[in-house]
Fold each of these.
Amino acid sequence: MASADQTIRTPSEMAPGDKKFLHALKGGLQKTPPIWLMRQAGRYLPEYREVRATCDGFLDLCFTPEKACEVTLQPIRRYGFDAAILFSDILVIPWALDQGVRFVEGEGPKLDALTSEQDLAALSDPTKAGEKLAAVCETVSKLSASLPKETALIGFAGAPWTVATYMIEGGSSRDFTKVKHWAFAQPESFGRLIDMIVEATVSYLSAQIEAGAEAIQLFDSWAGALDAASFDRWVSAPNRAVAERLRAHHPTIPIIGFPRAAGMNLYSYIETAGVDAVSLDQMAPLELIRHTVQPKLPVQGNLDPLALLTGGAALDGAIDKIMENLSGGPFVFNLGHGVIKETPPEHVTRLVERVRGF
Ligand code: 1CP
């Protein structure tokens, strides 16, 4: 069984200057795993809300390098996480394609939904996305110059399927009716949209890497909305296209995939999506993951954000269960999804202390 293989591994030496987070993504073992959290910068932190209040909308924050750099650094100063994630959003890609995007207070993102082939044809040249998002890449350069030397810098983008859901639904969705209908009824034209998003994402992520990003995460937050065949076509294949094209130019930059709520499709994903590590949601069963996924790829995750919000014994128990199952193999501690905005910041302190003291 795979666990037998894990028990004979010993913590491998980290070369001087290695960062814990990058070491884990290369398959290295450590006494305690590196830790960072999805949405570690954000509204649960009073210092974030203070900066946010000085901005003329959420996109203004994403496109002002000094402010975006500051909010990226805030959780690093407070908690000393092993990795910082660039502060931006997955919806800057539709913005760079000249689709109307705005963030409405209390309602979330609103986009001028694509409804026809003509709307697709009106989108702008995807190969220019990196240039159009130069302000975000400037944030990356600033971060690269100001992070502590032991802290890794993660760049990111939404994976094509998840970005397409927002572009066609016009915002967040519960049932993905419009995007699935388009993908099922007109797969060729939907495929053209996916290809454009792949192109824009490669351009944007290449620019982030050139500015100093040391690892990439692809967020496929709505991967769980698709049947198995559609999952292979619209989740795994486009993730692979992005990963292969990035790797051709930047072979040493690890790529983490996050196919949220993939369920059993996780198994085909790890074989075919071309990623170097996989981030797991809180639904993923730990023992099964330890025996069947972790022997193939480093894993990241998967504390329920609600356990972090709850705190106390519920939090401690959930942390310990994850550590007992996954800390024997290549592993990065994280949540199963982003930090919830009502989370007390001191629960995060407790989490970091417990993981590091395990
Ligand atoms: O005004 C605000 O402060 C808005 C809240 C907020 C924040 C803090 C949004 C709006 N985006 C972000 C930042 C963000 N988004 C980051 C960087 C910060 C960090 O992780 O520390 C990242 C990586 C994202 C990625 C993102 N945006 C995803 C993928 C991850 C996930 O949470 O599933 C998705 C789906 C989005 C879309 C988005 N951005 C914001 C909202 C409200 C939404 C919609 C979410 C939904 O449809 O449920």
Amino acid sequence: MRGNLQSFLKRAEKAAEKIRTWLSEGEFIDTFTHNDADALASAGIIGASLRREDGRFRIRSLNRIDDFIELYNQGMVEARCIIFTDTGSGTLPELTSLLKDKSVVILDHHEPSEATVPADWVHVNPHIDGFDGAREISASGVTYFTCRALNRANVELSAIAVVGALGDLQDKNSQRRLHGLNELIVSDAVENNLLEVKDDIILYGRTFRPLHVALASTTSPYIPGLSGNEQASFQFLRDIQIPLKDGEQWRTLSDLSEEEKKKLYNGLIEYLVSKGLPSGIADELVGKTYDLTREAVWTYLRDAREYATLLNACGKSGKGWLGVLVAMGARSEVLDEAQRVLEEYRLSIAKAMDYVAQPGVLEELNHIIVLKGGEVIDFRQVSSIASVLSSSGLLQRDKPLVALANAGKVVKVSARASKYLVDQGLNLGVIASKLGAVHGGKGGGHDIAAGAEIPADRMIKFLADFDRAVGESLAKPSHKVAD
Ligand code: C5P
Ligand code: C5P
């Protein structure tokens, strides 16, 4: 690890100290979070920690930081003490001028827009201490370290931080494993018997779902023709002669012998090649699996990646509160409802992927590929579609994806680059942030994944500038080294 761990932990300790003071003074704590899996996991961690201290608090999940500004301007943010998770670092100038009289803790992993914050604020962010917030730790990790400093018993929440990091795809490296500060969190969870880490094929529902259903349920990576299609997955497994039943019982991935797993892996490579897709997608199906040992084997919460998909589904269906409750530990009816939302979300993603396959929906410019989601793709889900599509091998690796969906007067933009392009020096977050401001909207994010909200009447110009900025960035000599 290249960052300064002591300094990072000291910052988390300072944030914990601030929260402790608020609690001892009986303050009401207003918490705001983003709406993706990492954000809802962060909110679950802070919520469970404040509940443990008998704190008075409320958690609200936001589609974008502008929603917070709107709430504030409507007088709906009355508390003096505010926590931001998975948001805040990218909009420090606006927040500091708006919240001058507030006491604020920011627990985020986005590139900070400023180096300093007001005296009564604490800002915990891995970038400040030299860590990579896109790959080594996410917002739920930052929140976890803060809550662990607040009360050692919060080690119990380490597995939720692992869920958050996986939700932000921080395992998207050649080994498909978490590393950096995330690895310290994994160690906490394993040492406390909360998590089981194994090497395996990464299919959703490895231990309990019939093999063909597990294959069809897996969307990271997205295997065109098989993901979202149980019938095609069933046929594929029959074609490669893997028995799907043992007597009357459906077989699961964990029932397969090592020989059969190799057959499955090789079969997938042949399948991808036969479809003209990069065989490297199959490598993304092999890596570390993270199982939450306290969750029932047959629920969507046992496998940390699937847990993250469930949280994401809640957030991107406008039900962030449901995801936060699950992450805080609510089960029974709450979990039933969240699982139902996940099923609906899967159908909606499958429908969107069918739409993407239609002629004219993807448009290739000089340096970028544009996905024109219009009104067909839900603006809350365009970021998931962008992530799924960019993991599918359907796009060229040398052009980033810029996905669009209409959201009233603005267009929601979600951009994704391949690791190859990031190694060439491309930083989508920098481009989105700069062009967002230039075109009267807002943008930001990480090198590999960024987003923006742009006034609809500025879209043509925005896209032309984005295309040019990517071209210029890639024309420059790169100093980045692949890992
Ligand atoms: O707001 P935040 O930083 O948490 O979101 C990061 C987003 O970037 C997530 O939606 C995640 O799925 C996406 N991502 C991606 N590909 C990567 C890394 C992150 O699509 N390799
Ligand atoms: O919305 P989407 O998942 O595509 O965003 C990708 C990344 O860009 C996320 O980390 C998100 O928080 C960030 N983003 C941002 N500012 C925006 C929109 C997105 O920092 N205006």
Amino acid sequence: MTRPLATAFLLSLSVMSGALAQNPNPIPKDPSPWKQHAMERPQPVIVTPGAPGAPVPPPSDAVVLFDGTSLAKWQGNPTVPMPARWKVQDGYMEVAPGTGGIATRQGFGDVQLHIEWMTPTPPRGESQERGNSGIFLMSTYEVQVLDSYQNTTYPDGAAGSIYGQFPPLVNASRPPGVWQTYDIVFHRPHFDATGKVTAPARMTIFQNGILVQDDQTVIGPTTNSRRDPYLAHADKLPLTLQDHGNPTRFRDIWLRELPE
Ligand code: MG
């Protein structure tokens, strides 16, 4: 189950704007010869990253979203605001399973995002049930967070994937219980007045300093076992983190808003 809380949010937006009944965007085609979530698709080659380090200090123009002490920049849900109920201790936040995803109070468009994460040790569960969380740019486009160390899953759902669309270029995962980093460059999609996509979203992702997505065009919202068309949305929307039922941890979250 990877449907984000954002689905309801986007639906409410689209109903308000009347776009739902007349979305001009087609259902995207599979971006490869493989069916979505195909297990027989080749697994990403393993590349062992360098040694983990201390949290990367934010630069002077960064918006610091989590400095290890407080969830003040976050809330439980963008449509029905409630406090974020994840655990904060010892400089990290941890998914409190069952409390739901969390969203930034502020919205963002084009960004450079730095975020560090750690999957639980000892590992529990297999495939998508091991250390699953996710980072949803604009509450809509998921960069998968998963324990992909000695844990086989469908390649378009591995760590470093753009969920359900593009596997990582390589498997750059560290073991569970070790901090990992994502550095993400995200360019938002653009829409014309009718809601038609004029420029799709794009992402570049480094996992643990290793390129795993190279200026990849995103073909639509990331969904589980389904292809959804782009649906026009605001220029800025919250960043959300997923509660997938696993106590995955995050720390050192900051971004730079990029000029368009
Ligand atoms: Mg996920």
